[in-house]
Specification:
Elements (H helix, E strand, L loop, with lengths): L2 H4 L28 E5 L6 E5 L5 E4 L10 E6 L5 E5 L6 E5 L6 E2 L7 E9 L3 E7 L10 E6 L6 E2 L7 E6 L6 E5 L6 E5 L12 E2 L17 E8 L5 E7 L5 E6 L2 E8 L10 E6 L4 E6 L15 E6 L6 E2 L9 E2 L7
Antiparallel strand pairs: 1-2, 1-24, 2-3, 4-5, 5-6, 6-7, 8-9, 9-10, 10-11, 12-13, 13-14, 14-15, 16-17, 17-18, 18-19, 20-21, 21-22, 22-23
Length: about 325
């Protein structure tokens, strides 16, 4: 077992990590496929599609100078991209199709604070938003809609804050983050098309091997940014109280069925967050804040890496010493 794997510790809450030695090939990672980044390299946040480590093209905006921000991109099965923008004054979801003009999807939904869109099957998206008539800063619920902006459906009605949804590989399930158990944890709705989808919601993270809560669920750590892999397992971030976030992978049945740590403080001392699945073996992640300031004057910059699920072949995607921040999605303000 490598020194990196031996240094991966246990959280004080009694969390049991099924940590494996770094396995697999030690070859350098192959060519980087086209990826999406959120960056403030031009001032406001914009979405860039980066090809290799060279060409970067703007997605969803014709130029960088306007004051609005474009964030939270997710690629659709047909190659289109959904994202959030406040270009019309309030955050809304937009679609940048493979061909054609960018269009707004949440025109008449009556929702506020819409955020974090992700594909759900081939023709729908899932996202979070505040119900019509509720205060702007109210708790969010999950919704789905077609890619033409129609057939809006509400998935959750719990008084907790339900955020950061992603569709599962079968196109029916949704994994998301909710504080309904007392602290942010990863949950799953097995069937978003069920008459009452929320009735089937199950908690996946923060449980002991016997399925019971792993200690008092009162905020000793917070989970965020879940992303399902093709095999059904889930990568996500976990931040202990007073510490920095790192990336973990757990079984499709949840933490009680098996979990291991992918990143650690030895290689990423500033933390790792917002994993994005590249393929069945590789993810992107954002890391930071590093030293210095970004172009918006924030203390500390964020950069993007890719890493194999075994915890090896860490490869920096964004430029060394760049005076700006790059994120995988920038799911929420920091």
């Amino acid at each position: 077992m490598s020194a990196v794997a031996r240094l991966r510790g246990l959280f004080s809450a009694g969390l049991v990590l099924l940590v494996a030695a770094c396995g697999g090939s030690s070859r350098a990672p192959g060519p980087l496929p086209p990826i999406l980044l959120v960056s403030d390299r031009g001032g406001p946040y914009r979405i860039y599609e980066v090809i290799g480590k060279g060409t970067a093209r703007l997605v969803g905006s014709a130029e960088t100078g306007a004051a609005h921000d474009d964030t939270m991109p997710a690629r659709l099965p047909d190659g289109g991209i959904v994202f959030v923008s406040d270009r019309d004054g309030r955050p809304a979801i937009y679609l940048a199709p493979p061909e054609g003009l960018v269009r707004r999807l949440t025109n008449d939904a009556g929702l506020s604070a819409v955020t974090q869109p992700a594909p759900l099957g081939r023709d729908r998206i899932v996202f979070a938003g505040v119900e019509p008539g509720a205060p702007e800063g109210g708790t969010r619920d999950l919704y789905t809609m077609r890619l033409d902006g129609g057939d809006l459906r509400r998935l959750t009605r719990h008084p907790a804050d339900d955020i950061e949804p992603c569709g599962t590989a079968d196109g029916r399930g949704v994994v998301f983050v909710s504080d309904r158990s007392g602290a942010p944890r990863v949950w799953r709705i097995p069937d978003a098309q069920a008459p009452d989808p929320e009735a089937g919601a199950v908690r996946l993270s923060g449980t002991a091997p016997d399925g019971s809560p792993a200690g008092a669920d009162g905020g000793d750590f917070a989970d965020h940014g879940p992303a399902p892999l093709p095999d059904g397992s889930i990568v996500f971030g976990r931040q202990p109280a007073g510490g920095v976030s790192q990336i973990f992978q757990m079984s499709r049945e949840g933490e009680r069925a098996g979990m291991r740590q992918i990143t650690d403080a030895l290689t990423l001392p500033h933390g790792a967050l917002e994993p994005v699945v590249l393929d069945e073996r590789t993810i992107l992640l954002a890391a930071g804040p590093l030293g210095g300031k970004d172009t918006r004057g924030a203390r500390g910059r964020f950069v993007v890496f890719r890493i194999a699920l075994g915890g090896f072949n860490l490869d920096r995607v964004t430029r060394d010493q760049a005076p700006y921040s790059d994120y995988t999605r920038r799911l929420s303000a920091r």
